[in-house]
Design brief:
Blueprint: H1 2-15, H2 25-44, H3 50-67, H4 72-87
Length: about 90
């Protein structure tokens, strides 16, 4: 159930990509990489290597810090995803 919620939130970030006109190409790539990393975590679940989980945690924290002022809804969504991942033990 939570995995599906996470996937819907990821899709909402992906869908809103067109609404992030002031996000440069490098930041779009960061968001796409974060999306792919989270999807990989969802596939592996608790079997994901600790280093990979920590890398994704760091990526989410960095994205939240980067977009905190300019895109508060995006920041909130990423935070919600982090909370859901933690809730399912990832």
């Amino acid at each position: 159930m939570d995995k599906e919620r996470i996937r819907r939130l990821l899709q909402s970030i992906h869908s809103s990509g067109g609404n992030l006109d002031d996000v440069d190409l490098e930041d779009r790539r960061l968001l796409m990489q974060l999306h792919d990393d989270i999807e990989a975590l969802l596939e592996l679940s608790s079997e994901a290597p600790r280093a990979h989980r920590e890398e994704v945690d760091s990526g989410m924290a960095g994205a939240m810090e980067k977009f905190e002022e300019s895109h508060p809804v995006l920041t909130s969504t990423i935070g919600h995803i982090a909370k859901l991942l933690s809730g399912i033990g990832i």
